[in-house]
């Protein structure tokens, strides 16, 4: 981590050994323990790591989640970096799980989006899975998703769809999705061979009408709701009959879970 930990180098003998316990200061869902272990073992290959709460499992306030043993200087060197990752990723997993629990009476799947902190997409999406959510596309390359700006730049929804269908045979294996904002656009999309339709920023009533129309005209089409989703309305959205609900907030607005790390010197006989 940078050029080292000058404070620890000045105050802690490199020969002193001990242990550290990471304790949850609030309830949550575990994600990032595998990163914590990697951090400490990168600093010191002789560090011993034990995780008490499995990835994706729930923990309670005051519960010990993992233990690190070895040189105290090595533990202190990695303390903040390890806690930062654990706090952020467990926060994502915990918020994701709240959404998943809200829609549990339905068959809806909660999806993440590309709204992630720069450099943390892979880990953020890993944390979403720990929380019980599903990963949407990872980038711009693994799915064809026609959004409103693509439609505008193409000259309209019909032209955008035509361009995709005209080249689809050249891009094997990629699913296609298109964003619609009203029933008129939905009808056009339903007449194509698109795999999934995203109902973007529709109110619950409009979404219910859209789902009814889609199931009537193209029963097997996948439907995704997006835009303005929160814990207060996600269940009502799920009850409209959509298959997926994408929630940007689970990765861009998740509150970090608070953990503490306390060290203890090895007792000599």
* Helix share bin: 25-40%
CATH topology of the largest domain: TIM Barrel
Radius of gyration: 23 Å
> What is the overall shape?
elongated
Structure notes:
With 269 residues, the chain is an alpha/beta fold. It has two domains: 100 residues, Aldehyde Oxidoreductase, domain 3, CATH 3.90.1170.20; 152 residues, TIM Barrel (Alpha-Beta Barrel), CATH 3.20.20.70. 40% of the residues lie in helices and 20% in strands. The chain has ten helices and twelve strands. A six-stranded parallel β-sheet has the order 6-11-10-9-8-7. Helix 9 links the parallel strand 10 and strand 11. The chain starts with 5 loop residues before the first helix and ends with a strand. 36% of the residues are buried. The mean pLDDT is 93.
Concise synopsis of the structure shown:
This protein is α/β, with parallel strands linked by helices.
Annotation keywords:
2 domains; TIM Barrel; alpha/beta; six-stranded parallel sheet; single chain; 269 residues; Aldehyde Oxidoreductase, domain 3; four-stranded antiparallel sheet; 12 strands
List the helices and strands and how they pair.
Elements: H1 6-11, E1 17-24, E2 28-29, H2 33-43, E3 48-51, E4 58-59, E5 64-71, H3 72-102, E6 109-111, H4 121-130, E7 144-146, H5 148-154, H6 157-167, E8 176-180, H7 183-190, E9 196-200, H8 204-217, E10 222-226, H9 234-238, E11 244-246, H10 249-252, E12 259-265
């Amino acid at each position: 981590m940078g050029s080292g930990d000058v404070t620890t180098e000045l105050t802690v003998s490199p020969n002193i050994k001990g242990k550290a316990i990471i304790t949850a200061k609030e309830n949550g869902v575990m994600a990032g323990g595998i990163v914590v272990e990697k951090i400490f073992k990168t600093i010191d290959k002789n560090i011993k790591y034990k995780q008490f709460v499995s990835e994706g499992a729930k923990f309670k306030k005051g519960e010990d989640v993992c233990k690190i043993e070895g040189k105290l200087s090595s533990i202190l060197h990695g303390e903040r970096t390890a806690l930062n990752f654990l706090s952020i990723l467990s926060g994502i997993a915990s918020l994701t799980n709240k959404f998943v629990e809200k829609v549990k009476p339905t068959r809806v799947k909660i999806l993440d989006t590309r709204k992630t902190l720069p450099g943390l997409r892979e880990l953020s999406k890993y944390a979403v899975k720990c929380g019980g959510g599903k990963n949407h596309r990872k980038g711009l390359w693994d799915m064809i998703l026609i959004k409103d700006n693509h439609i505008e730049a193409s000259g309209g929804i019909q032209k955008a769809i035509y361009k995709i269908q005209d080249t689809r045979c050249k891009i094997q294996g990629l699913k296609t999705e298109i964003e619609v904002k009203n029933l008129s656009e939905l009808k056009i999309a339903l007449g194509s061979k698109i795999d999934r339709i995203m109902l973007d920023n529709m109110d619950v009533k409009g979404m219910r009408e859209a789902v009814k129309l889609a199931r009537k005209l193209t029963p097997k089409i996948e439907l995704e709701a997006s835009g303005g989703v929160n814990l207060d309305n996600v269940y009502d959205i799920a009850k409209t009959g959509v298959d997926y609900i994408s929630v940007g907030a689970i990765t861009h607005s998740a509150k970090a879970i608070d953990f503490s790390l306390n060290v203890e010197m090895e007792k000599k006989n």
